[in-house]
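Troubleshooting: if your tokenizer reports a length mismatch, compare your output against this known-good record of 276 residues.
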Amino acid sequence: MEKSAHKLEILKRIEKLEEKELWHLDVEDDPETYPLMPDKIDYLNEKLSSKIKNKIANIFGARFFDKMIANRQLIIKEVRGIENFTAVKGGKIVTCNHFSISDNYAVWVALRDYMNGKMLYKVIREGNYTNPPKPFGLFMRHCNTLPLSSQKATMVKFMKAFAELLKRGETILIYPEQGMWWNYKKPRPMQDGAFSLAARNKAPIVPIFITMEDSDVLDPDGFFVQEYTMHILPAIYPDETLSPREAKQDMKNKNYEAWVKTYEEFYGKPLKYGEV
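Known-good structure output:
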């Protein structure tokens, strides 16, 4: 099968961004968006209408992605280290490398049997909420998502909701690399956001790194569907003897080092950017 010209172009964009060390930028053509105002978001689903939409969205979301799993469009080969997740009691932040629109569901599948009936909350970019990519609008807006915003008033609301969710013992997924790089196997240097939130809320981080191998299934774009191995790594706790800024940097360094170690052990080679 001939490979998709669009996907080949995305791979070229990734190569260029890697060369320029622009690790956080998206390679996809994101749709135009508009600011998320504070009255347009109910982070904690406190309204009855929000509760109903949340329930419906999660039902349809599960059906959509479970169908992908049944059709081997999403393949989770193995989950390693679940004991590192279950060892952490109370609210926690989960970090994961971001390379697919379905990797958050892979995280959910890996964790859901160990979450005591709770849902997985996902921090998403503003545009994915205000103008989500089709056909994922319902999921982006109502499947326990926590959109960021360019509006200060909305971010105040976000921060309060984030802290409340951790107090409730919820699990919140953040992509610390920020942009999605399609099927990119290497760990990327990270942004500060996840670690600032962890230090501010004195919350642990459970790093997850997903490794990939070619399956025997071709996707519609002519590429092999990837088989995921989910590596759930030991929790990282904020060092309360450090200043918030130092604690943030310490957690970020430890998360990146854990990902790099996992990458090198799984693929059997040192991490080198600019090389396949």
